[in-house]
Amino acid sequence: MAEAVATTRRSRITPEREAELYEAVLDLLREVGYDALTMDAVAARTRSSKATLYRQWGGKAELVVKALRHSKPGHGEDIDTGSLRGDLHALVAMEDDCAMERNSALMRGVAMAMHHNDDLRKAFREQMIDPEMGGFHQIIRRAIDRGEVRPDCPAIDFLLHMMVGGFATRALLDDQPPTQAFLTSYIDAVVLPALGAPTS
Amino acid sequence: MAEAVATTRRSRITPEREAELYEAVLDLLREVGYDALTMDAVAARTRSSKATLYRQWGGKAELVVKALRHSKPGHGEDIDTGSLRGDLHALVAMEDDCAMERNSALMRGVAMAMHHNDDLRKAFREQMIDPEMGGFHQIIRRAIDRGEVRPDCPAIDFLLHMMVGGFATRALLDDQPPTQAFLTSYIDAVVLPALGAPTS
After folding, report:
1. How many CB pairs under 8 A join A and B?
2. In terms of CATH, what superfamily is B2-67?
3. Does domain B72-195 have CATH number 1.10.357.10?
4. Is B172's CB within 8 Å of A108's CB?
5. Reported ipTM
């Protein structure tokens, strides 16, 4: 019932206004981080009322995760190049290096805050990780159907760990933002061989 | 010259006192995080003078990284089981699950703080990542000598990304702390196949 009301009310906001609001939330997130970000600040920055924000999004965690999700170009549902290597490279190519660097910094902050904010972790899982998993599962299923990956290959269960791990450790270990070139080499050197898939 | 003085002065502290001090630093780090941790708080908690702390460690970043390093059982320099799989499994077995969970939380906090603290990043690189790299290089060199890994295998360059990535993404993606069982499966499913090394 509450859900139905929220859905009805949400329809009053235009997509342009929604995009503007998400952009403001991400700006604030970059400026002060998740823990210091307040709904008051979002309301002030976007000239909205707090009541509206709560009614539309339910809370800070949901608003932040929706904003992050909005900034992502997609989860690769539309990618289908005909090979696993092509699909994974295409996934990486969805974001240019500049966007990837900005996203990498944001994601680090949010990943950190998730550890002591249960509602953020829950929202992140539902809105970001589960859809991402869904996209990967489609890509892997097609690779299995084409005979590129054996259906019992144990690395399948770790596909997201491998992909996110490459992205997340680049800054930590090499003091450089993840780039398309880095991730593409990482896919060819690590992900495809682990899956036993063709690397060229 | 300053280095020589610091070394002389450091020798006045007993190993027991040093261990006690590092433990207090890690406790504070768990309680308040890196950014909110102050040398005043460390001095108060350990009944030291701030002057002593600065003289011995130079600053907060160095003190925190030394404390983290002290809490690690080692970098695997002494591991030599006769196979790459054995060596990587032995690395994982150096920390029990309880220690790993505690370390994982600490490392997340520090990894996060590194992104906006240049001195912390530098100290972490010199004291933690470089020695870790050294340990991995020895392990890989022996695997190459034994013919388990081809010297031109492209995954060699990503060994630390793979290992740290598995450790770091477990909590993020699965909402569970990394365990020996998880990391051992991950090594068998991802790291060894990527390196083209025997998985049994």
Report:
1. 101
2. Tetracycline Repressor, domain 2 (1.10.357.10)
3. yes
4. no
5. 0.83
